[in-house]
Amino acid sequence: MALNNPTPLGPWKITVYDQENFQGKRLEFTSACQNIMECSVDNIRSLKVECGAWAGYEHSSFCGQQFVLERGEYPHWESWSGSNAYHIERMMSFRPICSAVSFSPKSTQNHKESKMVLFERENFIGRQWEINDDYPSLQAMGWSNNEIGSMQVQSGAWVCYQFPGYRGYQYIMECDRHGGEYKHYREWGSHAQSFQVQSLRRIQQ
Amino acid sequence: MALNNPTPLGPWKITVYDQENFQGKRLEFTSACQNIMECSVDNIRSLKVECGAWAGYEHSSFCGQQFVLERGEYPHWESWSGSNAYHIERMMSFRPICSAVSFSPKSTQNHKESKMVLFERENFIGRQWEINDDYPSLQAMGWSNNEIGSMQVQSGAWVCYQFPGYRGYQYIMECDRHGGEYKHYREWGSHAQSFQVQSLRRIQQ
């Protein structure tokens, strides 16, 4: 049957452009790209996610600032960074987030849930809290301060944010990376400079 | 009993500072502020939401860019704007979002739900979709394009975003304003320039 379909889409598809507003050179990907410069593109200036959830990175080889990219249109840097803390406007590599669970209506009880345990201190020490839902303000839900010490992702993929309301630096946490264990902010990504996390949510696709 | 408590907090509290990182002149509010300059402050450069959900505005009298502010710490402009589309770094007025519903664990069935109807075209015309949950990507959930024509908020308060993943311009929609009816993007706020909405979520407090 597959032979009858010359362009199978697969579960992931992203289209990137080397100019803003979906202009300039256009490239389609259905799997990871470790360095966009190897595709003769200096930088990505706009993109469309057509299928699946993706992680975008500031530098090649999936390093630097992280950006969760869900289905939709991103016409310029600010549309996916959500932060101008840096003024380096780059996205050099990206990959599918394979462990992101499927969107499911609430009435469906048989879908796979996202689960994570938050710990007050690094190395899985201190007060802990198991979560399986989105939290635009951790403090409003009873978490005592503006930091999380460590995290264990038991299923699915999550994105944590520096500020409330899903703003600031993003940290993508996945059950199938690091064994799902993030015991210090140094393991959250090379851009992480503190334990500050004030909102977090599941990544669904 | 209330007399025994000299500083009743009430359901809303926000502390604002005229310098970044919670420095400089400090003011506490438990209700709306129409013009921060009337409190002898030129501009707000950092803030802490201690109770409730608030709407912040770029200009006095609740005009210009809108920012939903939930419990937590916002040390500088980028931490609440989530956008650098403008380079005017201002927040001149703010008010409680009275219709935001309470956070409730999923197991509680008697909490008041947030409900909204999305319409494909302006003036409540075309395909419609009733929602009561958060949508980081409307397209991933089956909405056909990157625009919403009009909206009817039936209960609670919502924040709509220009881009997927809760990024870009924010539009705060409430059941107790405009009769909950937002029939054209011109009614979303003075900063709205198009029908583009790619993610939205409930405001809870």
UniProtKB/TrEMBL annotation, chains A, B:
Superkingdom field: Eukaryota
Record's signal peptide: none
Listed InterPro entries: Beta/Gamma-Crystallin, Beta/gamma_crystallin, G_crystallin-like
Domain Beta/gamma crystallin 'Greek key': 12-51, 52-98, 114-155
GO molecular function terms noted in the UniProt entry: structural constituent of eye lens
PROSITE patterns membership: CRYSTALLIN_BETA_GAMMA
A biological-process GO annotation: lens development in camera-type eye
Pfam families: Crystall
Entry keywords, A to Z: Eye lens protein, Repeat
PANTHER family given in the database record: BETA-CRYSTALLIN A3 (PTHR11818:SF8), BETA/GAMMA CRYSTALLIN (PTHR11818)
Homology family: Belongs to the beta/gamma-crystallin family.
Protein's name according to its UniProt entry: Beta/gamma crystallin 'Greek key' domain-containing protein
